[in-house]
Design the sequence.
């Protein structure tokens, strides 16, 4: 319970979407005092419109970057201290790849991110 009380993440504004509508990028800041890792245990969910259908997807974690399969997410940490650990005051970019394109242009979607100890953040994005 103490670790949960010391954990806080926040989205740094709205997310961005690539021109084709398959990649969403959200930047988070670790506002708490707890070091975060174990990214394969995080929950990342996206909700958006794709050709008139409301899409809600839980994305699985994969290490790496561009080129990995759809319906996955990956992290990139602006490491100041301890590579691979999301330390307090550091920023982390979450890149989400979705198989169904985000449409139409101007339609808002939302990304929900939850740490293993249940702390959440969300960000809106538009294409």
Sequence:
């Amino acid at each position: 319970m103490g670790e949960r009380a010391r954990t806080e993440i926040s989205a740094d504004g709205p997310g961005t979407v690539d021109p084709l509508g398959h990649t969403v990028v959200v930047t988070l800041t670790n506002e708490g005092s707890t070091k975060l890792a174990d990214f394969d245990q995080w929950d990342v969910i996206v909700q958006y419109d794709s050709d008139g259908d409301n899409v809600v997807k839980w994305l699985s974690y994969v290490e790496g970057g561009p080129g990995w399969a759809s319906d996955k997410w990956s992290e990139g940490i602006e490491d100041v201290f301890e590579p691979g650990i999301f330390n307090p005051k550091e920023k982390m970019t979450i890149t989400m790849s979705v198989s169904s394109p985000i449409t139409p242009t101007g339609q808002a979607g939302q990304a929900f991110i939850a740490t293993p100890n249940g702390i959440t953040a969300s960000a809106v994005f538009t294409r």
